[in-house]
Design brief:
Blueprint lengths: L2 E5 L4 H13 L4 E5 L20 E4 L13 H13 L4 E5 L4 H8 L4 E8 L6 H12 L4 E7 L3 H15 L5 E6 L4 H5 L1 H4 L4 E3 L14 H6 L5 E7 L7 H12 L3 E7 L5 H11 L3 E4 L13 E2 L1 H6 L4 E5 L2 E5 L1 H12 L8 E5 L3 H12 L3 E5 L3 H10 L3 E2 L2 H5 L5 E4 L24 E4 L8 H8 L3 E3 L1 H17 L5 H7 L3
Parallel strand pairs: 1-2, 1-8, 2-3, 3-4, 4-5, 5-6, 6-7, 9-10, 9-11, 12-14, 15-16, 15-18, 16-17, 18-19, 19-20
Antiparallel strand pairs: 11-13, 13-14
Helix pairs in contact: 4-5, 5-10, 9-17, 9-18, 12-13, 12-17
The protein binds NADP nicotinamide-adenine-dinucleotide phosphate.
Length: 483
């Protein structure tokens, strides 16, 4: 993937230093933002040391820059930079100099640029913008602020359409959701992408630093997480740590998404070849209709938490089930044929019921809304029981699948603690905090306890292996999750 480092420094000497550092770190081109310098330089000779092609930019205020010169003064400066050895000039599409460029800036390659720091227009408008500029035979660059998966989908679709014209272009998404378009710009059909020299020196939101970008190589593994909201997730830390520990060039991104946008996100996954995606609340069930295949474990649970992109076919899996099974195994907790109580009747409860059914356990479900418990019981050949009644029964395993005790939720026990007994296995699906009031109480009464953090770690290990073919070490994932 070719990358241009955008250099924003206050004077020539610093700009040249940054250009040379960019060159050293593998930049294929550099862009010098002259509009961000304190003064326009008289002497451009120091730039002769820079061997990679150079782009001169004097961005106007309406396009996010600081240049206040009139057209004639800009033209004079551009003529000087061309004489000074700059191969490319970046001119805003809206600039009146664009019409004069062929005559007045002969010898320079003009990059026709367009920036919208507020929004991404619809596909047709993006393509229209690209076509109008490309008709002059120039390299066209357009960057839009990506605020939603729908925006991202429009950008990727526009790139796909415009690629068919054979014109050279660069189409970039700004902001966190636009990051994937910068990482996979070659798959978008772009000539090159833009990067920052280092973190903190970005000239546009969502720009990566050149060392990280080049470190990803030609075929990075891109994975991520969708759901809404995503703020609390540990997954990015765990997966990025696993990429690093195993020396796999890859990155884990966040794709917050509404239910209506799920189909668009899946289409972006296919178009850009995003290798895998974790799915979390509230999309674990609704995502299934957008997939090409759902594996038997996920079908049994009725929920997908991992999508694997196998040559464009999206396959839904459920590593919550395999993860919690691994957590039981690692704790030496055998529930085969035992009597188990599941508290709750949502997605996590279904995952536990699926595992317990495989273990031929005698499953009992209790839930605030008993009708939901009955539905789950029917799907997993289980029985339902009221909270009060459950407390006086004997269970070999008790599992909490409600959010009670989770950070931000009521600090309450989901059931009467008299249900706990010495020798019992007690697990909480909650991973934050690691020791919930439920686990603390069970432990105090002699039960063997397993934290939801174990399930989280093992499900992430299974997902990573499904995407990359390599299994990360438990210690790497747990270390990244703050254990
Ligand atoms: P869900 O589908 O929304 O189900 C929540 C369940 O909790 C429902 O049965 C609900 O009862 C019950 N509930 C909610 N608030 C309650 C309250 N105030 N009092 C009593 N019951 C209440 O959620 P989920 O996906 O199953 O997640 C449940 C928990 O598991 C969450 O804390 C989640 O973070 C955790 N989890 C952990 C992992 C992991 O890897 N460790 C994976 C998945 C989930 P009603 O039916 O009456 O609404």
């Amino acid at each position: 993937m070719k990358a241009c480092v955008a250099v924003a420094e206050k004077d020539v000497n610093e700009a040249v230093r940054s250009c040379l550092a960019a060159q050293e770190r593998g930049a294929d081109l550099v862009e010098v933002r002259f509009d961000l310098m304190d003064h326009l330089p008289e002497d451009l000779a120091p730039f002769k040391q820079v061997k990679v092609p150079k782009i001169a930019t004097l961005r106007t205020a309406d396009q996010g820059g600081r240049c206040a010169l009139d057209d004639e003064a800009r033209l004079r400066f551009f003529r000087r930079v061309v004489r000074g050895g700059f191969e490319h000039i970046d001119l805003e599409v809206s600039s009146s100099l664009m019409r004069r460029a062929d005559h007045d800036l002969r010898g320079a390659n003009v990059i026709a640029s367009y920036h919208d720091f507020e929004k991404t227009p619809k596909v047709s408008k993006i393509v229209e913008t690209l076509v109008s500029v490309a008709s002059h035979g120039r390299l066209v660059k357009a960057a839009f602020m990506v605020r939603s998966v729908s925006d991202l989908h429009d950008l990727v679709s526009a790139a796909k359409l415009f690629s068919q014209t054979q014109h050279k272009f660069i189409l970039l998404g700004m902001g966190e959701l636009g990051e994937v378009t910068r990482l996979l710009s070659d798959r978008m059909g772009c000539e090159f992408t833009y990067a920052a020299l280092e973190r903190g020196k970005e000239t546009a939101p969502g720009q990566m630093d050149i060392a990280t970008l080049k470190g990803l190589g030609q075929k990075p593994i891109i994975t991520g997480l969708t759901g809404q909201p995503l703020g609390h997730s540990y997954s990015a830390k765990m997966h990025d740590a696993a990429f690093e520990a195993l020396g796999i060039p890859g990155r884990y991104l966040k794709f917050p998404c509404s239910e209506e946008e799920l189909g668009q996100l899946m289409s972006v996954m296919r178009d850009l070849g995003i290798n895998g995606m974790n799915v979390t609340i509230p999309h674990k069930e609704s995502v299934m209709e957008h997939l090409d295949e759902v594996d038997p474990t996920a079908k049994n649970v009725g929920a997908v938490n991992v999508i694997v992109n196998k040559d464009g076919r999206l396959i839904g899996r459920n590593t919550d089930v395999t993860g919690l099974a691994a957590a039981f195994g690692a704790a030496g907790a055998d529930v085969r044929g035992k009597r188990a109580l599941v508290i709750g009747a949502g997605g996590a409860a279904r995952a536990f019921c699926s595992f317990l059914r495989d273990q031929k356990a005698d499953i009992w479900i209790t839930n605030r809304t008993i009708s939901r418990a009955e539905e789950v019981a029917e799907d997993f050949s289980a029985q339902t029981i009221g909270h009060g009644e459950a407390a006086s029964e004997r269970f070999d395993a008790v599992i909490n699948c409600t959010p009670l005790g989770m950070a931000g939720f009521p600090h309450e026990l989901p059931i009467d603690p008299r249900v706990f007994r010495p020798g019992q296995v007690v697990m909480d699906a909650i991973y934050n905090p690691r020791i919930t009031p439920f686990l603390a109480e069970a432990g105090a009464r002699g039960a063997k306890t397993i934290s939801g953090m174990e399930m989280l770690i093992y499900q992430a290990m299974d997902a990573f292996e499904a995407w990359t073919g390599q299994r990360p070490a438990y210690e790497v994932m747990s270390g990244a999750a703050g254990q």
